[in-house]
C-alpha cells in the first residue's frame, strides 16, 4: 500500500481575495507573494470564519515500516518521481528490518537523518526542561546550537560533522573570540550529540575527539580579590552613594554640585537603599554566594534560632543542584536579622495606614535582599566613589563574581585548610579553589618565610642563629631532659651520649671498645666485657640477651659469656654466677694471672671479676 500524495490543509482567507461560485461551490481567487493567480475552495471553519483549502507543495510518502505500522513521512520533494524514489528507499529499508538485516534502532536512526536540525534542538531543550535545568541555561544552549547550525551549515542532523566544528573554532579564534566562549559552543554541541545517541537519533556522536581551546593561555577576564581596606571603603561608598546621587546635579553648568534638596521621605528611601546595597556586598563576601543564589533567598531561607545561624539554599537555585546550608558569621546574622525586623515594621506601618490588620511576620516568599539585575554597573559606580581601580596593574578586574574570589582568598589568608575552603565554596575540585579563586598576591608569603630554618654562612652567623633558636651551649634545651644517659642502668643511650674514641681509652678500635687489663669497673656495660658475644657496632638500643626457658621452673637457661653463666638470683634477679674451677672462679683466676705475669704472655683474654652488678629484665 505504499504511495505518494500531496496533503491538503486549510488556512484563513487571504486578504483581498475575491470570492465566486463554481458548480454550486464557493471559491476564492487571489494572487500569491510571487504574483501568480491562485484559486481555492472556500468553506466555513469551526469559529465561523471563512477558510480556504489548499494543497501542499511537497509530496508525502505513505508505507508500512519494519514493524508493519503505517507511516506517513514528508519527502520534501516537489516532483512526484523524486518522491517515489524516496518512497522506494523507505520500503527497501522496511523490508531489510523485517528480514533481520537492519535492526529497528538503526531504522529509527535513519528516519531521523532527514529531520531539520532546529526541530532536534527544540526537542533537546524540552528534554533539558524535564531535567529541571534553569530557563537561562536552556536559552543559552539553544543559542549556541542555532549559531553553530547557521555558521556550519547544519540543515539536517546528517550534516553534523567534526571537521565543520573544528574549522569554525579556528576561524573564531582568528576573529579574536575567547577560548572560553569557543569551549562553551563546543560543549553545547557535544552534549547535544550525546543526547541524540541516547534518544536513537544518532548511532555515534560525530563530534567525538574535538579538542578544547586552551583557556589558561587565553584568559580574557581575570578577577582579583579585594583587600580588607578596599572592602571597608566599598561598603562605605555603597551606603552613601544613593543619597549622594539624589542630591547632586547631573547635567548643566552646575553639574557635580550637591545642591539638590530632597524630601525627608526620599532621604529615608535613599538611606535604606544604600544600607541594602552594602548588606548585599557584605553577604556576598562573607558567604561566597553567587549573585543569582543570593537573589533566590527568601525570608523563609534565613534560620537564626539555631546554634549556627545559616541560610538554606534550595537545589533548584544552586549551580550544582544539590542544595546547601550556608553558615553565617555572627555579625552578618545580626545585620540580616535587623534588616528583616525593619522590613516587618515597614509592612506593618503600611497595613495600619491602609486600615488592614498588621501582620506578625513577613510572607514566606518575601526576598531576603532585593538584588538588582544591573548590580555590575552599580558596583562599578561604587568602586569609582570608593577610589578603587576597576583593573589593577596586571589587567585583572573587579566585578560581582570577584567578591566570591575575595571570600576564597580571605579564607586562605586566615589559615583555613584547603579542604575546608573547598567545602565553603562548594567546589568539586580543590584545584579550582586554590588556583582560580585564591589570589596569591594577597597571601602573606613573606610571613611564611619566617618559619624556614636558619642557614648561617659564618661563625658569627652561627652564634647568632644558636642564640636565636635557644640552642646555646651545644644542644637544644630539651635534649638533656629527653635523651637518656647510657651510664645509667635501664636507659637506652642516645648517639650524643655515647663515648668518643678518646673517652674509650687508647685501646679502643673504632666502634668496638676493648677493656684494658685489670679493668674492674662494676658499671661497665656487658657490651664492653671482653669475651662477650656482642656486636662491635654501637647499638642504640643495647640490652642483655632475652632469657630462655630451661628445665627448672622460674629458671632461665644458663647462657655462657666467656665461660660464665647467667643464673637466677634471689628475688627473681639474675646475676653473673660463679662456677667452681671455671673462668670466673676467683681463686683460679688469681692463679692464672700470676702464671701469666711470670711468663710475660698477655695473649690470654682478661676475665671480669665474678662479682658484677645485677641485671634485671
Kindly describe this structure:
By secondary structure, the protein is α+β, with helices and mostly antiparallel strands. Helices cover 39% and strands 10% of the residues. It is built from 19 helices and 13 strands. The strands form four sheets. A five-stranded antiparallel beta sheet has the order 2-6-5-4-3, with no helix packed on it. It has a three-stranded antiparallel beta sheet with strand order 1-7-8, with helices on one face. Helix 7 packs across helix 11 (375-386), helix 8 packs across helix 12 (402-413) and helix 12 (402-413) runs antiparallel to helix 13 (418-425). The longest helix is centred in the middle third of the chain and has 24 residues, at 264-287. The termini are far apart. The model is unreliable at 474-484, 500-511, 518-524, 526-536, 548-579 and 602-617 (pLDDT under 50).
Rg (C-alpha, Å)? 47 Å
Q: Strand arrangement, largest sheet?
A: 2-6-5-4-3
Helix content estimate: 25-40%
* Strand percent estimate: 5-15%
Observed structural traits:
617 residues, alpha+beta, five-stranded antiparallel sheet, three-stranded antiparallel sheet, 39% helix, disordered C terminus
What's the SSE blueprint?
Elements: E1 3-5, E2 8-12, E3 18-22, E4 25-31, E5 37-44, E6 50-55, E7 60-64, E8 70-74, H1 80-99, H2 104-112, H3 117-130, H4 135-152, H5 162-174, H6 179-198, H7 228-246, H8 264-287, H9 291-296, E9 302-303, E10 310-313, E11 324-327, H10 330-353, H11 375-386, H12 402-413, H13 418-425, H14 430-436, H15 445-448, H16 459-469, H17 479-482, H18 501-504, E12 566-568, E13 574-576, H19 586-599
Amino acid at each position: 500500500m505504499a504511495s505518494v500524495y500531496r496533503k491538503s490543509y486549510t488556512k484563513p482567507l487571504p486578504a483581498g481575495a475575491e470570492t465566486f461560485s463554481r458548480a454550486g461551490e464557493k471559491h476564492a481567487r487571489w494572487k500569491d507573494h510571487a504574483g501568480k493567480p491562485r484559486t481555492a475552495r472556500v468553506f466555513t471553519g469551526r469559529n465561523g470564519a471563512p477558510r480556504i483549502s489548499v494543497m501542499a507543495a511537497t509530496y508525502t510518502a505513505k508505507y508500512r515500516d519494519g514493524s508493519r505500522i503505517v507511516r506517513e513521512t514528508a519527502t520534501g520533494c516537489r516532483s512526484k518521481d523524486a518522491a517515489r524514489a524516496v518512497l522506494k528507499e523507505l520500503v527497501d529499508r522496511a523490508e531489510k528490518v523485517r528480514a533481520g538485516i537492519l535492526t529497528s534502532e538503526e531504522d529509527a536512526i535513519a528516519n531521523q537523518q532527514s529531520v531539520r536540525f532546529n526541530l532536534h534542538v527544540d526537542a533537546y531543550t524540552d528534554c533539558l526542561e524535564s531535567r529541571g535545568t534553569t530557563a537561562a541555561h536552556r536559552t543559552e544552549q539553544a543559542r549556541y546550537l542555532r549559531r553553530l547550525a547557521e555558521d556550519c551549515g547544519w540543515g539536517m542532523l546528517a550534516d553534523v560533522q567534526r571537521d565543520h566544528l573544528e574549522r569554525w573554532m579556528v576561524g573564531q579564534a582568528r576573529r579574536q573570540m575567547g577560548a572560553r566562549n569557543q569551549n562553551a559552543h563546543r560543549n553545547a554541541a557535544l552534549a547535544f550529540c550525546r543526547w541524540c545517541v541516547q534518544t536513537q537519533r544518532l548511532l555515534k556522536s560525530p563530534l567525538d575527539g574535538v579538542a578544547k581551546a586552551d583557556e589558561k593561555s587565553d584568559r580574557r577576564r581575570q578577577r582579583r580579590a579585594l583587600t580588607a581596606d578596599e572592602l571597608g571603603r566599598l561598603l562605605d561608598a555603597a551606603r552613601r552613594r544613593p543619597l549622594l546621587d539624589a542630591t547632586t546635579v547631573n547635567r548643566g553648568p552646575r553639574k557635580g554640585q550637591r545642591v539638590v534638596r530632597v524630601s525627608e521621605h526620599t532621604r529615608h528611601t535613599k538611606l535604606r537603599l544604600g544600607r541594602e546595597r552594602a548588606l548585599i556586598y557584605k553577604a556576598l563576601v562573607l558567604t561566597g554566594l553567587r549573585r543569582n543564589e543570593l537573589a533566590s533567598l527568601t525570608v523563609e531561607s534565613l534560620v537564626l534560632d539555631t546554634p549556627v545561624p545559616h541560610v538554606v539554599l534550595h537545589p533548584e537555585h544552586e549551580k550544582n543542584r544539590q542544595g546547601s546550608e550556608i553558615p553565617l558569621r555572627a555579625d552578618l546574622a545580626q545585620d540580616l536579622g535587623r534588616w528583616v525586623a525593619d522590613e516587618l515594621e515597614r509592612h506593618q506601618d503600611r497595613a495600619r495606614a491602609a486600615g488592614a490588620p498588621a501582620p506578625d511576620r513577613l510572607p514566606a516568599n518575601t526576598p531576603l535582599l532585593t538584588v538588582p539585575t544591573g548590580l555590575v554597573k552599580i558596583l562599578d559606580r561604587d568602586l569609582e566613589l570608593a577610589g578603587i581601580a576597576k583593573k589593577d596593574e596586571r589587567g585583572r578586574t573587579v566585578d560581582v563574581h570577584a567578591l566570591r574570589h575575595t571570600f576564597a582568598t580571605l579564607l586562605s589568608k586566615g589559615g583555613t585548610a584547603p579542604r575546608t575552603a573547598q567545602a565553603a565554596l562548594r567546589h568539586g575540585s580543590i584545584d579550582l579553589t586554590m588556583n582560580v579563586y585564591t589570589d596569591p598576591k594577597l597571601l602573606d608569603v613573606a610571613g611564611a618565610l619566617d618559619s624556614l630554618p636558619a642557614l648561617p654562612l659564618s661563625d658569627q652567623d652561627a652564634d647568632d642563629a644558636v642564640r636565636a633558636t635557644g640552642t646555646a651551649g651545644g644542644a637544644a634545651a630539651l635534649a638533656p631532659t629527653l635523651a637518656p644517659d647510657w651510664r645509667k642502668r635501664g636507659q637506652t643511650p642516645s648517639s650524643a651520649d655515647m663515648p668518643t674514641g678518646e673517652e674509650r681509652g687508647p685501646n679502643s678500635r673504632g666502634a668496638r671498645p676493648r677493656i684494658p687489663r685489670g679493668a674492674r669497673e662494676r658499671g661497665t656495660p656487658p657490651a664492653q666485657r671482653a669475651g662477650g658475644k656482642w656486636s662491635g657496632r654501637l647499638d642504640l638500643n643495647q640490652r642483655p640477651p632475652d632469657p630462655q626457658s630451661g628445665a627448672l621452673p622460674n629458671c632461665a637457661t644458663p647462657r655462657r659469656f666467656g665461660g660464665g653463666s647467667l643464673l637466677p638470683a634471689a628475688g627473681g634477679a639474675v646475676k653473673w654466677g660463679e662456677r667452681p674451677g671455671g673462668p670466673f672462679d676467683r681463686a683460679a683466676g688469681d692463679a692464672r694471672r700470676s702464671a701469666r705475669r711470670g711468663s710475660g704472655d698477655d695473649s690470654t683474654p682478661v676475665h671480669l671479676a665474678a662479682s658484677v652488678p645485677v641485671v634485671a629484665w
